[in-house]
Amino acid sequence: MAALQGSHLLSSSSFSNERRICAGLHVPSRPRAKGISLPKLPASIKMEQLGLKEHNSDDLSNSKPHQPMTADHKDDHLVAKLSAIAEAAAERAEMHTIIGEQRNNWNHLFLHSINSINLTASLMAGISAAVTVGEAAPHVLAFKLSSVALFTAATGMMLLVNKIQPSQLAEEQRNAARLCKQLERSIHSTLALGAPAESDIAEAMAKVLALDKAYPLPLLPGMLEKFPETVEPTCWWPKTRKREQETKKAYVNGMAGNGWSKELEEEMMGILRVLKMKDEEEYVRVGKLVLNINKTLAIAGPLFAGLAAVGAGLIGSPVDSPLPVLFGVVGGALAAVVNTLEHGGQVGMMFELCRNLSGFYRKLQEEIGSNLRESEVEKRENGELFRMKMALQLGRSLSELKGFASYASPSSNDEDVKEFAGKLF
């Protein structure tokens, strides 16, 4: 009996082990998900919450939430605006360069064409006079009509060219292209230094508009007056408002802060006086002289060509006089000479150059004056940086600027000012 029980237990244990082995072989083990947790759902949801969610979903579908502009987003917006202004300045510089080259070509083409026409017409007038004396007098009409037509065309072309002054137009575009590139570089410098402000954008826009007004792109209408009644310096910068009130500045050990000192103010006041008395006045005076020369040449050229046309038409007339031949031949030659002096010598360009240089010194005066009128030195441009900029723009060293402090004294006479402030131009 005991033996039977032992065998039964053995057989049952072996069967159970076999089941365990089979279960371990055939049943795959489930992978364990690590680091995943499911949210707990609420057991019940109230009906008020369902109604509220349905109402909010309808509102969201009809309107977008308003997000306030952050500081970073505002800075990016200002950077984008200033970059757009820099791109516009670069585009204007390219346009001025292209138009300047075109108008410079106009000057050369009109110069050579008008001279060729005048000299050819003079030659025909001389031939017609020689044919009139000879045996082939009936053929003189062709030479007369040809010379008259050429002189008339030359007169009209000279009037047109003298009105627009291509050399002066080319100088305007060259200077405008240089200033637009300078503005573009200053804007990129502002962007490189840090986040721009609204005042930087307003100032850049004002500078672009001032350049457009000083150097217009279109020829007609909008062209600058080529023969003005009064010579004024060119203004290509926005005007700054003058401060009416000034307060006395207190200096501690000769220093006022922000790089400014009493000695530096005296230097700037001396430079300001010399710029106004000598540099600007000199270029305005030379500009008036060049303008008068240009007016004389602009009148004399068409006048000589017109007289030559009349003289060529009177060749062979019953009036027995050498004046028609003299007017026809000599007048055409003089017209070519005057045209060469005016447009070959680029007198209009010289006048525009004097006007731009006087404007350059006027701009330096306004920069110095705006800083000196500012009573709070912290609102001025840094004194040391401003002094270095003035020295570079005037073509002088920093030590040479100290000599202008003596001109700031009210006791100094105007006759004592012998030198010019600028050595660069």
UniProtKB/TrEMBL annotation:
Q: Which organism is it from?
A: Phoenix dactylifera
What InterPro entries does this protein's entry cite? Chloroplast_duf
Matches recorded under Pfam families:
Chloroplast_duf (PF14476)
Superkingdom of origin organism: Eukaryota
**Name recorded for this polypeptide:** Probable F-box protein At4g22030
